[in-house]
Design goal:
Number of helices: 7
Strand order of the largest sheet: 1-4-5
Largest sheet: 3 strands, antiparallel
Oligomer: single chain
Distance between the termini: 169 Å
Shape: rod-shaped
Order of helices and strands: HHHHHHHEEEEEE
Number of strands: 6
Structural class: mainly alpha
């Protein structure tokens, strides 16, 4: 210890212990600090921390037993009031205005979201209707294609049957005509005659029957008489000869007859053609 005759030294550990005790009491009192609502309404539960935090004179002054002189007291700790620390409360009108703005904002957002949802639902309904229409069209086209395929198959079957029927009819017509000719040939052989004139007449009759039959069937003989102008589309030249009987480039004689069936070439006429001066 040292100093003047009227002073006494205080142990630093004692000062630290007193300060810690004060801070502990302040922390405990802050737990029970009044809320903003209590400050605004003046609730009687409000605690004056500043008053409670002040140390009593007995707790602040430390008395020592070993000396007649009084000990210098420790200054009390002063804390700021709660009102000076907390922000000032907003008036009730401002609180209500902010709440109304928030409510209006949420209402507008809800209305916009509802409108968007309605548009999406309408678009979905239109797309669903369009899809149903396309499905219906596809189904109708598929059924039409099946019907067309079935009709085409029936048409092919009908055409084949008609063609076969026509072929049978044509064969029957040819055979009936040939039967008449065969009967005439057999009749001529049975009642044969040594007279050449009668034999010639019989052969001419058979030939005319053949021509009539061919004509009924639509077969026409190609003209290839001597002097006829040679036509490569209907005539086939087997030989070129120099002659004064016909003009050059004309048919001299017919070797094999040619025939047309309803305008279509069956067989060209095979002929001998008079040569031109260049061929000579």
């Amino acid at each position: 210890m040292g100093g003047g005759p009227d002073e006494i030294d205080i142990d630093p550990e004692l000062i630290a212990a007193a300060t810690a005790a004060v801070e502990s009491r302040v922390r405990k009192k802050r737990k029970f600090a009044p809320s903003r609502r209590q400050e605004e309404t003046g609730d009687p539960v409000t605690v004056d921390l500043e008053q409670e935090a002040g140390l009593s004179e007995e707790a602040a002054n430390v008395a020592l037993a070993d000396g007649p002189t009084a000990v210098t007291p420790v200054a009390p700790v002063r804390l700021p009031s709660v009102a000076s620390i907390l922000p000032p409360p907003r008036p009730a009108a401002q609180v209500d205005e902010a709440a109304e703005e928030q409510r209006l904002l949420l209402t507008l957002r809800l209305r916009d979201t509802t409108e968007r949802l309605r548009r999406v639902e309408d678009e979905l309904a239109r797309m669903t209707e369009a899809r149903d229409g396309l499905d219906r069209q596809c189904r109708e086209l598929r059924e039409a294609a099946h019907r067309a395929s079935a009709d085409s198959e029936l048409a092919r079957i009908r055409a084949r049957k008609e063609r076969e029927e026509l072929e049978r009819t044509a064969e029957e017509r040819v055979l009936r005509g040939l039967l008449d000719i065969v009967e005439n040939v057999e009749r001529g052989l049975t009642h044969g005659s040594q007279d050449p004139a009668r034999v010639q007449a019989g052969l001419n009759m058979i030939a005319e029957q053949f021509k009539a039959l061919l004509k009924r069937l639509g077969v026409e003989r190609i003209v290839a008489d001597p002097g006829t102008l040679f036509d490569p589309a209907q005539h086939e030249a087997l030989l070129h000869v120099a002659t004064n009987d016909v003009l050059p480039g004309c048919v001299v004689n017919e070797v094999a007859a040619g025939f047309m069936l309803r305008g279509r070439m069956m067989r060209p006429a095979r002929v001998v053609v008079a040569s031109t001066p260049a061929d000579s």
